[in-house]
Amino acid sequence: EKETEALLHQNLMYLSTISGDRITGELELILEEERPENILQGASDRGVLSSIHPSLRWSDDLSVRFERARGYANIKIGGMPLYFSLLAYDGTEKENGELMAFFKFSRPLAQAMRDTIHLKANLINLVQDNMPRSQIYYLLQSYSLVALVAVDISANISIVHKYIQLFLTELRHVRGALKGEELLRLGIKSGPAMRE
């Protein structure tokens, strides 16, 4: 409606007076919608996102990523952490730190966003052909599932997609075949390190 839009433009300056917690709650409600990208695109077009925080930017690429994210329903990670990680992907570490501080995200959500940025920064390690499965596992095993999916959706690099999909579907489920007695024979000392 034109009247609502006029009021919105008139009152954008007051968004800075609303707490990060309140805005987080509203953003979470938006992300629970069936197609949150449509609402966020409209908010961006009207200057709402940048008025909330200068690091909140929207693009056509994000609309596509949000749509692709719904294709990962088979991996139990929840939409909201994935959507926030997709938002984080294009930002710098500094910008994402500011966003996390402003929105006061939960520790797991903030960690997923940090993992996303860290994995993005280390993509160079994943663009090698014929990488051994053990190396793929080693490179990806410390990242959250949310970050892996966010980078898989956002990076749009076929070899990275191949390796992340291999990790998600197979490698993360692999367990070591050696038993404690075999490790002792190999010279590993008994103790907590052996369990790892």
Overall 3D shape: elongated
DSSP strand content: under 5%
Cα separation of the termini: 59 Å
Radius of gyration: 21 Å
Q: Unreliable stretches, pLDDT < 50, 5 or more residues?
A: none
Please write out the topology.
Elements: H1 2-11, H2 20-31, H3 36-45, H4 48-52, H5 60-69, H6 79-89, H7 93-103, H8 107-121, H9 133-140, H10 145-155, H11 158-169, H12 180-185, H13 192-195
Helix pairs in contact: 3-5, 5-6, 5-10, 6-8, 6-10, 7-8, 8-10, 10-11
Verbal overview:
With 196 residues, the chain is an all-alpha fold. The chain has helices at 2-11, 20-31, 36-45, 48-52, 60-69, 79-89, 93-103, 107-121, 133-140, 145-155, 158-169, 180-185, 192-195. Helix 3 (36-45) runs antiparallel to helix 5 (60-69), helix 6 packs across helix 10 (145-155) and helix 10 (145-155) packs antiparallel against helix 11. The radius of gyration is 21 Å and the shape is elongated. The mean pLDDT is 84.
Write a concise synopsis of the structure shown.
With 196 residues, the chain is mostly helical. It has helices at 2-11, 20-31, 36-45, 48-52, 60-69, 79-89, 93-103, 107-121, 133-140, 145-155, 158-169, 180-185, 192-195.
Structure keywords:
196 residues, 13 helices
